[in-house]
Amino acid sequence: MEIGIIGAGNVGTAMAALLGAHGARVTVTARGARLARIRAEGVHLDDRGTPHHAAIAALPRLDAPQDAVFLCVKAQDLPEAVAANAAGIGPGTLVVPMVNGLPFWFDPASAELGAVLDPGGLLRARLDPAQVLGAVLLMTIRRDAAGRATSTNTPTLSLAPVAGDTDPGRGAGLMAVLNAAGIRASAPDDIREAVLVKLLANIATNPLSALTGCSLAQIGRDPGLRAAAFAVAGEFRAWAAAAGYALPSDRWLGDLLLDAGDFPTSMLQDARAGRVLELGAICRAPMGLARGAGLAMPCLAAILARLEAAPALPLPEAARAAALAGLPLPLAERT
Fold first, then answer.
1. How buried is residue 35: exposed, middle or buried, by Cβ count under 10 Å (0-12/13-18/19+)?
2. Residue 82 region, left (φ>0) first, then alpha (ψ -120 to 50), else beta?
3. pLDDT at site 335
4. Domain boundary among 139, 165, 188
5. One domain for residues 265 and 133
6. Do 150 and 209 have their domain in common?
């Protein structure tokens, strides 16, 4: 298979290194110094102590149709990325958006999602739903100053068609390639539920970590941070229940935080680097769906407002407490 990877950030680098090191024909897109470095040195991933290196093709944009294209950019950058790489996406190309938060394909009929995730309608106009595979990647990744990626857990990828009338076997060849590269790929019974399970963790921790400068384990250990995370999770879980989805409990979330160790969320990494945060897909889109169902998410709204007002990092403990003061926590979370 000819596999294109659009974006050479954390996820793009890890995917390119694993696939390329195991013989897949990979082309990655990058710009500027990152493009020059990949051309000179290839891509690198340390996966739980096992090094993976691949010398792969690198271009500013894809110039020929691929069998599969992984969109490894932030959700807010998807329209621009798809437009710039239109030459690489043919009618038969499988398109795999590897985004955090709610993806644009989650509910095609939702005006709330469209306004936040695809405001110009470019994604829906250019991509046939039958060629889109929903993806949920569970993998902790960070990169050093040289662009070398490190991961501390087994890469696990849920992958399935997003359109109900699509052949469920479409993508079987791609899944075989992924598994051969050490990426544990499988098709869930419900890709949308898989999205929401991951989003439960993301929505409860990403904005909170960017606001306070705290890692996942710090959030899990600190009573105030944990209470805020559980409050946001409860708000999101209430919407999911109304929509017919049963999401994991706070005990599951608490264990997840502690098991992750002192790992900075992707949003905290972006905040530290001065990059634009994924607030649309992770926060605003779920809040829009909740509003559409007549439900509010006051704790998330308060964290989002404070984060947008003063995202100063890192916060000393006293300032961190001030950032959390007065959050509208449920009574159960205050004790």
1. middle
2. alpha
3. 45
4. 188
5. no
6. no
* Closest to 276 measured CA to CA, from 303, 301, 315, 311: 311
**pLDDT for residue 157:** 97
Number of domains present in the structure of the chain: 2
212: CATH: 1.10.1040.10
Q: Are 220 and 230 in contact, with CB atoms under 8 Å apart?
A: no
The residues, ordered by sequence, that sit 6+ positions from 19 with a Cβ below 8 Å of its Cβ are 3, 5, 26, 54, 177, 178, 181, 183
- Cβ atoms within 10 A of the Cβ of 193, count? 16
32 and 172, same domain (yes or no): yes
The count of other CB atoms within 10 Å of the CB of residue 25 is 15
Question: Which string of b and e fits 51-81 if b means at least 16 CB within 10 Å?
Answer: ebebebbbbebbeebbbbbbbbbbbbbbbeb
25 lies in the same domain as 83? yes
Q: How far apart are CA 37 and CA 31, in angstroms?
A: 10
Task: Find residue 68's DSSP bridge partners.
Answer: 3, 94
Residues 93 and 42 both lie in one domain: yes
10-residue averages of pLDDT along the chain (335 residues)? 96 96 95 96 94 96 97 95 97 95 92 91 94 94 92 92 80 94 94 97 95 92 94 97 96 94 89 89 95 95 86 58 79 53
- Residue 97 bridge partners (DSSP): 71
The greatest distance separating any two alpha carbons of the chain, rounded to the nearest whole angstrom, comes to: 59
The answer to whether the CB of 60 falls within 8 A of the CB of 31 is yes
* Domain end call among 188, 209, 234: 188
- Distance between CA 115 and CA 111 in Å, rounded? 6
Q: How many CB atoms sit inside 10 A of residue 143's CB?
A: 17
Boundaries of domain holding 23: 2-188
**Could you tell me if 93 and 68 are in contact, meaning their C-beta atoms sit under 8 angstroms apart?**
yes
CB 240 within 8 A of CB 234: no
